[in-house]
Backbone:
């Protein structure tokens, strides 16, 4: 039984937090004087007007609702194709394709390190043939497609598939991702995504920049450089660092494109980062508003950009998967809806809500559907999207937006003074900053200062807890026929001479010329080279081992031998 | 009781870049006065075996967040037996389905820590079990 003392304490419980999650002190109440120093035209701007704090478009969701772009990916290309068609029927409006880890890390599916990973947490895609199967029957001319790998092979295979079906490449919608090179090997001690080799940027990194240049010049409805803020945030940093680092990476990428002769006003229009929506509701809303403002102000100040379309930040937001708990998993549905709401109030162009079984296994169909329903409740039942930037004018939100904008800008300037993002990464500064945040954030959870329902408060015994249905492509054995067929095709059915010639040409272009690697990769994909072979050849150019797991020798070497 | 610091190897095997959890655990063990060698993510089984032998470690802590843990642990445990490293306390954490925990333990994993486990709990577990192991040896 609860004692009188306990029930009294519960009854009298009050808010004790006096800072936001990124450490900004907040008062009990905000009044007109707290925003008296903020100039509406200069610091906020009407929706669709510089500096865009209120949104990228004058009409926002009255003009177009945000995309329901949930991350999906599972099992074999064929099973994933079926899941995609199902989810689109359920109301998903755009695709973010998640890969299983052997695909993500450029392995062949039959090598030892891939064992147990096939089709888990993502789909397995290893060749153009697989991508064609994944996309079978989908309306590529209307669909916005994005994918998780940092290297462009999947995006290039997607483009080839669209061409084969007669779609106009210039009209394809999508997002090409390259940012992991700005993160991995620094934030993540990793052996595959190599950014620096002997102090120089790697050939695979060059290929990603080549692809971005290709997108800028040929795919007019694709946005380049899709991700980054989300990954950085999930690597343990606060809301201010998330936006500041995203902008610092943008600066670095923009300088690279300008060096390649892309007009800065054109290049800047093609940037669309994915940011994170975490749990501190008002801070997240203010963060997005501040992000648009600093994004525009720094582009104008540092790059002399004048075109309003190029100054305006458009972003997709992923609800933080790390906020989803294994304990009491259905509670994650509430977390997802609250974060999704913050994304909507912050003016995201697209939102992803994770499935509630995130901390258990590859999402089941039921869980993935509920993640779509969460967004649909806000879209259709809540009335929230009816008015543009409804948070504007709130003494608290405007004050917090202004404070965050100043802190973000100071952090961006700090990185620029260090010599830019790549230099800050190379010297270990980034890693060090993330470690400091990690200690601070984890400390709050451990000490109980930050309540996590079901984890450090309101817990129940595991045996009484709800257990999600298990969807496990690895134990259901549904990937086995795929694997057998793939290996048979790779080892026996391909024209090996043709593959070899294409890979030799790719190596030659990488080694001996400064030409773009995009055309020889197209050629290799069409010649049936596998994704792992393409990455392996480009690793060899830098003197790295063909296979980072050390389990395969080069296709080129085998044939020479 | 020996005064030698408890020595722990931590890291991730194979194709899984989710390093946030294992780095938090690494730091907690270090803060508790243990000597921890963090191998990073994307390690090969052989690299783990080499580290265990060279460092004369008491404990190995591995983290798995995107599948493949049963298969990776099978490969690792085979090599651990071949190298006579069975005295090492093997711990696994991460996204492991409930049904797989008995299978992990059968393979030789001493304990599986699921998401949400307090770091202090893991630190206590490691200190206690290593002491217990030393006493049993004496």
Residues:
């Amino acid at each position: 039984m609860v004692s009188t003392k306990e029930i009294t304490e519960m009854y009298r419980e009050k808010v004790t937090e006096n800072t936001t999650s990124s450490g900004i002190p907040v008062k009990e109440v905000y009044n007109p004087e707290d925003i008296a120093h903020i100039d509406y035209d200069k610091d906020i701007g009407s929706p669709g007007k510089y500096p865009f704090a209120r949104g990228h478009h004058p009409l926002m969701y009255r003009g177009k609702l945000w995309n329901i772009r949930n991350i999906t990916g599972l099992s074999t290309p064929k099973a994933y194709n079926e899941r995609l068609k199902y989810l689109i029927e359920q109301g998903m409006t755009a695709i973010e394709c998640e890969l299983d880890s052997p695909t993500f890390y450029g392995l062949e599916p039959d090598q030892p390190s891939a064992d147990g990973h096939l089709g888990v947490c993502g789909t397995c895609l290893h060749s153009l043939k697989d991508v064609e199967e994944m996309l079978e029957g989908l309306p590529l001319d209307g669909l916005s497609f994005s994918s998780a790998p940092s290297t462009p092979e999947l995006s290039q295979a997607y483009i080839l598939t669209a061409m084969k079906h007669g779609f106009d490449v210039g009209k394809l919608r999508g997002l090409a991702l390259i940012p992991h090179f700005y993160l991995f090997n620094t934030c993540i001690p990793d052996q595959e995504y190599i950014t620096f080799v002997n102090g120089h940027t790697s050939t695979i990194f060059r290929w990603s920049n080549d692809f971005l240049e290709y997108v800028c010049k040929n795919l007019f409805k694709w946005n380049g450089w899709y991700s980054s803020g989300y990954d950085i945030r999930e690597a343990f940093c606060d809301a201010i660092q998330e936006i500041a680092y995203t902008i610092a990476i943008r600066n670095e990428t923009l300088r690279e494109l300008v060096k390649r002769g892309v007009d800065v006003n054109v290049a800047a229009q093609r940037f669309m980062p994915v940011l994170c929506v975490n749990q501190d509701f008002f801070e997240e809303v203010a963060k997005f508003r501040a992000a648009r403002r600093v994004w525009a102000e720094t582009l104008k100040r540092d790059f002399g950009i004048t075109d309003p379309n190029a100054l305006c930040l458009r972003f997709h937001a992923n609800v933080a998967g790390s906020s989803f708990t294994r304990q009491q998993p259905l509670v994650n549905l509430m977390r997802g809806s609250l974060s999704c709401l913050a994304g909507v109030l912050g003016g995201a162009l697209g939102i992803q809500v994770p499935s509630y079984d995130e901390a258990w296994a590859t999402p089941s169909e039921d869980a993935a559907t509920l993640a779509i329903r969460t967004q649909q409740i806000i879209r259709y039942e809540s009335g929230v999207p009816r008015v543009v930037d409804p948070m504007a004018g709130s003494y608290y939100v405007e004050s917090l937006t202004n404070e965050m904008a100043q802190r973000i800008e100071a952090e961006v300037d700090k990185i620029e003074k260090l010599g830019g993002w790549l230099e800050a990464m190379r010297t270990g500064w980034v890693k060090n900053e993330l470690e400091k945040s990690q200690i601070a954030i984890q400390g709050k959870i451990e000490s109980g200062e930050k309540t996590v329902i079901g984890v450090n408060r309101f817990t129940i015994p595991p045996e009484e807890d709800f257990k999600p249905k298990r969807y496990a492509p690895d134990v259901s054995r549904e990937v086995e026929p795929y694997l057998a067929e793939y290996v048979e095709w790779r080892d026996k059915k391909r024209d090996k001479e043709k593959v070899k010639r294409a890979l030799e040409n790719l190596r030659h272009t990488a080694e001996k010329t400064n030409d773009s690697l995009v055309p020889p990769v197209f050629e290799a994909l069409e010649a049936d080279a596998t994704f792992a072979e393409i990455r392996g050849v480009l690793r060899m150019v830098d003197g790295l081992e063909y296979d980072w797991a050390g389990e395969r020798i080069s296709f080129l070497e085998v044939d020479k031998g | 009781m020996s005064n030698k610091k408890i020595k722990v190897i931590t890291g991730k095997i194979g194709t899984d870049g989710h390093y946030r959890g294992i780095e938090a655990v690494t730091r907690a063990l270090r803060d508790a006065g243990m000597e921890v060698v963090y191998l990073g993510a994307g390690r090969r089984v052989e690299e783990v075996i080499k580290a265990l032998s060279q460092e004369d470690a008491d404990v190995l802590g591995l983290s798995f967040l995107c599948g493949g843990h049963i298969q990776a642990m099978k490969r690792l445990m085979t090599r651990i037996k071949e190298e006579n490293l069975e005295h090492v306390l093997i711990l696994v954490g991460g996204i492991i389905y409930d049904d797989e925990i008995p299978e992990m333990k059968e393979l030789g994993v001493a304990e599986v820590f699921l998401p949400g486990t307090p770091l202090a709990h893991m630190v206590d577990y490691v200190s206690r079990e290593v002491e217990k192991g030393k006493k049993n040896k004496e």
